[in-house]
Amino acid sequence: MTCGTRSSFSLVHWLEAPVLGISSLPLPPSLSSDTSAHPPLSLSLLILEISSARPFLFRHIIDTPTLPASPLPPPPTPLHSCKNCKRFSPIILYSLPPVLLMAATFVPAHTAFFGAKKEIGARSSFSPSISAHRCRKHALNKVLAVMAPTQPSRAPATTGSVKHGMTMTEKILAKSSDRSKLEPGENIWVNIDVLMTHDVCGPGTIGIFKKEFGKNAKVWDREKIVIIPDHYIFTSDERANRNVDIIRDFALEQNIKYFYDIKDLSNFKVNPDYKGVCHVALAQEGHCRPGEVLLGTDSHTCNAGAFGQFATGIGNTDAGFVMGTGKLLLKVPPTMRFVLDGEMPHYLLAKDLILQIIGEITVAGATYKSMEFVGSTVESLNMEERMTLCNMVVEAGGKNGVVPPDETTFKYLEGKTSLNYEPVYSDESAKFISEYRFDVSKLEPVVAKPHSPDNRALARECKDVKIDRVYIGSCTGGKTEDFMAAAKVFLASGKKVKVPTFLVPATQKVWMDLYSLPVPGSGGKTCSQIFEEAGCDTPASPSCGACLGGPRDTYARMNEPMVCVSTTNRNFPGRMGHKEGQIYLASPYTAAASALTGYVTDPREFL
């Protein structure tokens, strides 16, 4: 049996085989160079594999033996004599039935995708054209390489060799891994610039860190860890409050420089260190910088990609490892390119654009891929609108989203950070797995109907949907510009809302902006004044609020079946509370217009 054998055996079936065991995994340079400088560790690695036939997540936690303080033992005998597989000999497999092991031998190893360019206008729909080419290499090579990446030997360039460019994401990861060249699918040890965690995942991350590195271990860099309580804050729930206590104790113990604490829950304004929603606070406090790698224990960490950096969410196990080493094993994602051109209509916002995109490619369309946003429309967006674009790439399955940094980016960062940063941009010869083009001038306001962000519909097509409430807030739709947009609709209508309208600023700064910044064209009125005249609820304490449900006493939580138009990012059953609640995701324009009528409403009725 050779590695060149073809078979139709499904990779998905193979991935459903029992857990794989590993012996002798390679370590990050900082650990492997001098094992005597570190105590023995027990690592847990997350293995991700994507099926070529369809988006498919293969995730196993594999515990390795304690790392020896002496040189690693010699590699075991290779599984077979295939020359293509010998380089992975440090790995052995067990607990794999012989039948599956034999079947796996037939599995194609690599897949190259070719996505046709798409021209997209109003109301267009399509299924991305993807064709798969199956390689002849041994299937085990692919999986083994994911588990134990090796540095391939590179021969000197020969006459006539072609230098291929890299995408933004590839360049950032190359720089952070001290590599001159990277390609999608490679597994690399990345040096992390910023690690963020919050009150929901922080306690778990801290627990794993202490278990694996020792109760008295110190974090790798106290100035590169940001801890932000924001999710379950203004509640009497004891478990939620205990989580905040845990991250506070850890921050004090480790002398974490950037811990944005809140102690008095009765009045957030007396807590000068408290910020609010982590993703918006990271930007406002200068932790988002072009060309860097930012990881967070929250899926919407991709929000920071608006600054031209690699930002993605990770689990507690990975975060615990990063806390102790400052490194993480990452697989380089391929990049999808989204070109948005045309003048932005006055009735559209970035939320309409990202809902349009997700509706086109589906919630699985960008699975473990980078989404790069370019074009004249993107260049015209302010930083908060760019953050909205990148925030929801994870709703399409994306690994990360990026916007090329420009003068708008640099101006936003002035006064927010004193650290130097190095912007990077995609090469002209960079390879993209697919490209989608949108003529933004032809698009209309859209919503995502229950119960999925890709269940897209034109807002005007949902005019008969009666609603019970409107919610304006979250990391996606609770920024200053989002409230300015809502106030613009209320001001233009001169009417009062017909359903309860809840306002939850993302951060303290946003809250203060609502009471201090005049709304353009209002004659000096602030958002808070316009909201009061329209009959909205008083702006609440800044936090994640009801975006993710939370304890029963969370402000604006849906504790009974209701229909809600929301500027948040997810609408699966139970997301904002009651499992029978229905959530229509929309832009602040559409949310405000709907509040005025009591039905899902196209904002062009008022703008």
Explain this structure.
The structure is a single chain. The chain has about 600 residues and is α/β, with parallel strands linked by helices. The protein has three domains: about 130 residues, no CATH class; about 250 residues, Aconitase, domain 3 (2-Layer Sandwich), CATH 3.30.499; about 160 residues, Aconitase, domain 3. Helices cover about 25% and strands about 15% of the residues. The protein has a five-stranded parallel sheet. Strands 9-8-7-10-11 form a five-stranded parallel sheet, with helices on both faces. Strands 20-19-21-22 form a four-stranded parallel sheet. A hairpin with a 6-residue loop joins strand 1 and strand 2. The longest helix has 17 residues. The protein is globular, with a radius of gyration of 25 Å.
Low-confidence stretches: 1-26, 30-161
Number of domains: 3
In the CATH hierarchy, what is the class of the largest domain? Alpha Beta
Can you tell me the CATH superfamily of the largest domain? Aconitase, domain 3
Order of neighbouring strands in the sheet with most strands: 4-16-13-14-15
Helix content: 25-40%
- What's the story with the biggest beta sheet? 5 strands, parallel
Number of helices: 18
CATH A-level architecture of the largest domain = 2-Layer Sandwich
